Amino acid sequence: MLDQAHIHLLITHLPVFGSILGALVLVHGLYTESRPTRVAAYNVLVLSAVGALIANFTGEGAEHTVEGLPGVYESIIEEHEESAIYVVWILSACGLLSLAATFASIRDLAIERRLSLFVLVLSLAGFAAIARTAFLGGQIRHTEIRSGATAPMENTAEKEKEEMKEDEDD
């Protein structure tokens, strides 16, 4: 059964990849002057914003699932949460401007070109923010990406057995 932690882990990938994909499609649409391509980019960016909101709403439940597990530190979770707030604001603004740009495109309004440039800037800023947030979130359970991570320690039980065997041989 899916709980908030599962939903959080699944949905967090949408704003990460959606924000950069939407930006790239938008660049292509601007370069080729293709209205349908720009509208497709706006749709991807709206979905990315929705994904960011869902990830934010499920974050608390995910936190409750992992807190108390070995190797999980509250300080890492807090840093991830604080970073996520910026993502929600940036990608929400990007999604709303994408909706406005879609409307302007459908109505063939001249403002659509300027809106598309604002959307592009916000999508790139959103990608930078979500990439950082995803990295911080990954550190919660992936100790290998934490700064100062060390090589895995030897299994102490096996080491003790070897030492006992050496003592017996002597």
Structure description:
Helices cover 81% and strands 0% of the residues. The chain is mainly α and 170 residues long. The longest helix is centred in the middle third of the chain and has 33 residues, at 74-106. The model is unreliable at 150-154 (pLDDT under 50).
Question: Secondary structure elements and their pairing?
Answer:
Elements: H1 4-11, H2 13-32, H3 35-66, H4 74-106, H5 111-141, H6 156-169
Task: Please name the defining characteristics of this protein.
170 residues, elongated, mainly alpha
Low-confidence spans: 150-154
**Beta-strand fraction estimate:** under 5%
Largest sheet: none
Q: Which bin fits the share of residues in helices?
A: over 70%
SSE succession: HHHHHH
Task: Give the integer mean of the pLDDT values.
Answer: 87
Total number of helices: 6
Give the name of the CATH architecture.
Up-down Bundle
SS content category: mainly alpha
| Rg computed from alpha carbons, rounded to a whole number of angstroms | 23 Å
Report how far the terminal alpha carbons are from each other.
56 Å
